[in-house]
Amino acid sequence: MITPKHVCVIGAGVSGLAAAKTFSGRGHRVTIVERSSGLGGVWEPARSYPEVQTQSPKELYRYTDRAMPEAYPEWPTGPQVHAYLADYAKSFGLDRMLRLDTEVAGMARRADGKPGWTLTLKSKDGVSTHEDFDFVAVCTGQFNEPRELHCPGEDGFLAQGGQILHSSKYGDPSLAKGRRVVVLGGSKSATDVAVNAVKSGAREVTIVMREPVWRIPYFIGGLVNFKRILYIRAQEEMFPGWGISAMGRLAHRIAAPLVWANWRGLESLLKAQLKLGRCNMVPKERIEDGVNCSVPIATPGFYPMVADGRIKAVFGTFDHYDGDSIVMSGGERVGADVAVLAIGYKLGVPFLPEAYRQKLVDADGQYRLYRLIANPDLPELGFVGFNSSFCTVLCADLAANWLVRYADGQLANQPTAQQMRDNIEMMLHFKRVERPAAGVYGGLCVAPYHYRHFDELMADIGATQQKRGGLAGRFQPPDADAYAKFLATAPDYRAA
C-alpha cells in the first residue's frame, strides 16, 4: 500500500506542470506554488522578449502525453508555447492546484517528527504562513533568477538617461528605435535581442561577448535539420561517456580518426555557411570539446548583420560606464543609450536551509544529484527540470516519472543511499576530469548524452521497452510518443 502524500511542487513552468501531473496521476494531493502571477515559467508573457521561439523542434519540446498543435510551426513562438502549457494545465486540472503570487521564503524539516518539510509561504501582500508537506518537488529549473552585473559608473549612466535591463525585461522593442543598443552576452537570447534591435530601428547595435562560440543553424548546409545531427544516438556515441569499460575506451581510440574527421567536416561546413571568417567569429575551441547545453542556435540574420556592419561585435566584457559610453575590458569605448544584459540566470535553491544547501552543492558549484533528480541526504525532496538539455520538456517529463516512483519506493532499481552517493562521486569525477564541458550549469547538463540519460531513467523505472532498435534507434531524434509507450510498459500502481 502506498500512502497518498501531500506534495508541494515549487514552480509552475514546464517542469512544475510535469511534476504536478505525474504526482497527481499517482493519487497524491498536489499544491503548485508559483511566485509569478501566471504559469509558464520562462514562457510567461511578462518574461519573454520579442520574437522568442524554441531552440528545439516542436516534436521534441513537448510532453509524452500531449503533442503540440499541428498548426504550430516546427519551432513554436513564445506565445504558442505558453498557450500549449496553459492548455496542458487546464486539460489535466493542474490549474486548480495553483497558488499564484506565492513565494517560498524558507523551508525546514517538520517539527512534528513526521517525514517531510514545513514551507514558509509568502503572499504578494507580504503575509507569511507555514504549511506542512510530505514531499517537495523543486521545479524552479535553470532559468529562475536573472543574473545581475553592476559596473563602476552605472549610476551616472542611468542619471544621464541611459537604461540597463536584463534580456528577460526586453519586452518592448520600441525602446530600441533610434537609440544605441549594446547587448552583453553570447547566448541565443543575446543574438535574438541584437537582431530584433536592428529590425526595430536602432541607431547602432553592438554585441559584446567574451569570445566567439560555435552556433548551430536550424538547417545545417541549408538542408539538414540540426536535430538529425545533434539529437541522434549515433552522434552521441562519438562522445566517451561515464563509467566506460576498457573495451569501450579501446573502441573510441580505434574510431578516433573517423570521429575527428566528422567534427572537422562539420566545422568547415559551419564556417562556410555562416561566413564566420568574414565576420571574424571563428571559435578557437574545437566544436566537440564544447558541445553541451550552452551551445546556441544561430539566430536567423545574425551573421549577415555582423558581416555587413549592422551589428558590431566586440570581444570582452563590460569594465565600467563613462557618461553615455560603456568601456570594455579591452579598453574599447562604445556609445550606448540602452544596455541589455543577456547574461543568463543564477542557479540555486535560496529557500533551502544552508546546512542542506551544503549537502546539495559542492564548493565549485557542482550539484550532488543522483540521476540529476535526487540527493540521498535530502529526504522527501526531489528536483524536476534540473536535468537541462536540448529536450527540456521531455527531460522534465521523464524526471517527474522517475521522481514519483522514487518517492513512493516503486523504482524497479530503487537505489540505496550509498549507491546514490557512489554514483554521484563517479559522475562528479567524470564532469570535473574526463569531460569538463559537462560541468556547465552546475553539472546539470544532459547534452550531448540525451539517450544515455533517458536509458538510465527508463531502466530505473522498470520499463520493459526502453529504446528503439534498428536504424530508427540510431539515427532518429528522441520521440516523445515512443517514450509514452515505453513508460506504459513499466509496472503500474496508485497511492491509496
Give a quick set of tags describing it.
single chain, 496 residues, alpha/beta, FAD/NAD(P)-binding domain, five-stranded parallel sheet, 15 helices, 20 strands
Write up what this structure looks like:
- The chain is an alpha/beta fold and 496 residues long.
- It folds into 3 domains: 6-145 and 346-489, FAD/NAD(P)-binding domain, CATH 3.50.50; 148-210 and 316-343, 3-Layer(bba) Sandwich (FAD/NAD(P)-binding domain); 214-297, no CATH class.
- The protein is 32% helix and 17% strand.
- A hairpin with a 3-residue loop joins β12 (219-220) and β13 (224-225).
- The longest helix has 29 residues, at 246-274.
- It is an enzyme of class 1 (oxidoreductase).
- Its EC number is 1.14.13.148.
- This is Trimethylamine monooxygenase.
